[in-house]
């Protein structure tokens, strides 16, 4: 793993987040992959545990933040609009003295960067160090998300204390909602908690049209999952974003054309609406 860090074998992929209201791109999550010299491309489940026990996780987190921030600025320079970038951090990284400096060096505008607190972080209300670290991150104009809500350590008390911008419902809770009423009611309760506290809710693990329909009815703010796209390379994500933007412009142009037709009397109002 140390050799992988030295030889730049870690690459960042990006999974789109889609607005439940507009179905447009609302952000991306940065996800690390290890191009292992003999085992091929490895997802975090294959190496994060080892990284934590060997003390390498903070270095990997720092590398992902650096690469993802640089890529975010490259997209912007190339005319690719991404509303915000979410980057995961571990417990080790959260207490890393260099974290705030690295965030400042990313040079992203307020609201463009979001730090995701992983489920491996203890949200014990008796421990004020987490709250202090989160408060310091927020002073830099960085939003905070709680990842894997419903399966990790986060509680309603921790939501009150940390006041995150968003929380993400774990895919293990999302997946069965198409067949189980109990699971659906549970997800609905989490959404209501988010609404009550003014916290946006993202559903992970969205894999079918039924997931989209049910979650939208339940009131989630955004979707993330393979129904829309898997984690993508930087180039593929740029293509995805451009395609989404192009479809939006096409839709707006058609709506504008229909409206002009109505106003000029060349197109009946009923037909313009049906289109």
Care to describe what's here?
Strands 1-2-4-5-6-7-8-9 form an eight-stranded mixed β-barrel, surrounded by five helices. The model is unreliable at 268-275 (pLDDT under 50). Helix 3 (57-77) packs parallel to helix 5 (99-106). The protein is built from twelve helices and nine strands. A hairpin with a 3-residue loop joins strand 2 and strand 3 (40-42). With 275 residues, the chain is an alpha/beta fold. The protein has helices spanning 2-6, 48-54, 57-77, 91-94, 99-106, 128-138, 156-162, 171-174, 181-197, 209-218, 234-264, 269-274, and strands at residues 10-19, 25-36, 40-42, 85-89, 113-117, 143-149, 166-169, 200-204, 222-224. It is globular and about 45 Å long. The chain has two domains: 2-232, EAL domain (TIM Barrel), CATH 3.20.20.450; 238-275.
Briefly characterize the structure.
With 275 residues, the protein is α/β, with parallel strands linked by helices. It has helices at 2-6, 48-54, 57-77, 91-94, 99-106, 128-138, 156-162, 171-174, 181-197, 209-218, 234-264, 269-274; strands spanning 10-19, 25-36, 40-42, 85-89, 113-117, 143-149, 166-169, 200-204, 222-224.
Please name the CATH architecture of the largest domain. Alpha-Beta Barrel
Fraction of residues in H or I helices: 40-55%
**CATH topology term of the largest domain:** TIM Barrel
Largest sheet: 8 strands, mixed, barrel
| Gyration radius from CA atoms, angstroms | 20 Å
Look at the structure and give the mean pLDDT. 87
Give the CATH H-level superfamily of the largest domain: EAL domain
* Helix vs. strand class: alpha/beta
> How many β strands by DSSP?
9
Q: What count of structural domains?
A: 2
Residue runs with pLDDT of under 50 for 5 or more positions:
268-275
How do the SSEs run, as a string of H and E? HEEEHHEHHEHEHEHHEHEHH
**Separation of termini?**
56 Å
> Mind telling me the CATH class of the largest domain?
Alpha Beta
């Amino acid at each position: 793993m140390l050799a992988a860090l030295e030889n730049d074998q870690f690459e960042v992929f990006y999974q789109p987040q889609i607005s439940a209201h507009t179905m447009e791109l609302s952000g991306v999550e940065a996800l690390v992959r290890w191009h292992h010299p003999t085992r091929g491309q490895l997802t975090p489940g294959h190496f994060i545990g080892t990284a934590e026990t060997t003390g390498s996780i903070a270095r990997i987190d720092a590398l992902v933040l650096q690469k993802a921030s640089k890529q975010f600025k490259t997209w912007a320079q190339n005319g690719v609009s991404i509303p915000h970038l979410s980057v995961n951090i571990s417990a080790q990284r959260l207490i890393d003295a260099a974290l705030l400096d690295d965030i400042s060096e990313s040079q992203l505008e307020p609201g463009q960067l979001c730090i995701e607190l992983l489920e491996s972080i203890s949200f014990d209300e008796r421990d004020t160090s987490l709250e202090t670290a989160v408060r310091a991150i927020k002073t830099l104009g960085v939003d905070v998300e709680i990842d894997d809500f419903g399966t990790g350590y986060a509680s309603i008390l921790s939501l009150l204390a940390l006041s995150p911008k968003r929380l993400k419902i774990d895919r293990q809770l999302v997946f069965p909602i198409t067949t189980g009423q109990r699971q659906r009611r549970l997800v609905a309760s989490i959404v209501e908690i988010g609404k009550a506290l003014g916290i946006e809710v993202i559903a992970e693990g969205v894999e079918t049209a039924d997931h989209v329909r049910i979650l939208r009815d339940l009131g989630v703010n955004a979707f993330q999952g393979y129904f829309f796209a898997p984690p993508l390379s930087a180039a593929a994500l740029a293509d995805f974003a451009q395609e989404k933007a192009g479809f939006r412009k096409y839709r707006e142009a058609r709506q504008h054309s229909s409206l002009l037709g109505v106003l000029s009397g060349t197109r009946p109002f009923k037909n313009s609406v049906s289109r």
